[in-house]
Amino acid sequence: MATRRNSSDKQRQVFQRVLQLSMGLFALVYIVLGYFVIKLKWLMVPLADNYAYGLGALLIVYGIYRAYRAYVSIRDTMNN
C-alpha cells in the first residue's frame, strides 16, 4: 500500500511541475503577443493605433499576472 501511495504522490508532483511550467510558458506567450500587437499593430486584422496599444497593454498586464500566479504556485510547492 505504501508503494502505491508513493507512486501516486510522485505522479502528482510531476503533474504539478508540468502545470507550473506551462503556466510560466503561457505567461511569456501573452507578454510576447502583447509586444507584437503593439509593434506590428496587427492581430488577425489590422488595428488602429489606439486599439493596438490598448490590446497590447492588456495582454502584457495579463501575462505579468499569469507569471505572478506561476511564481506563487512554484513558491508554495517549494515550501511544502
Output the keywords.
80 residues; elongated; 88% helix
How would you describe this structure to a colleague?
This protein has 80 residues and is mainly alpha-helical. The protein is built from 2 helices and 2 strands. A two-stranded antiparallel ribbon has the order 1-2. A hairpin with a 1-residue loop joins β1 and β2 (45-46). α1 (2-40) runs antiparallel to α2 (49-79). The model has no long low-confidence stretch (mean pLDDT 90).
User: What about the largest sheet?
Assistant: 2 strands, antiparallel
Count of beta strands: 2
How much helical structure, as a percent, in the residues? over 70%
Number of helices: 2
Structural class: mainly alpha
Topology:
Elements: H1 2-40, E1 42-43, E2 45-46, H2 49-79
Summarize the structure.
The chain is mostly helical and 80 residues long.
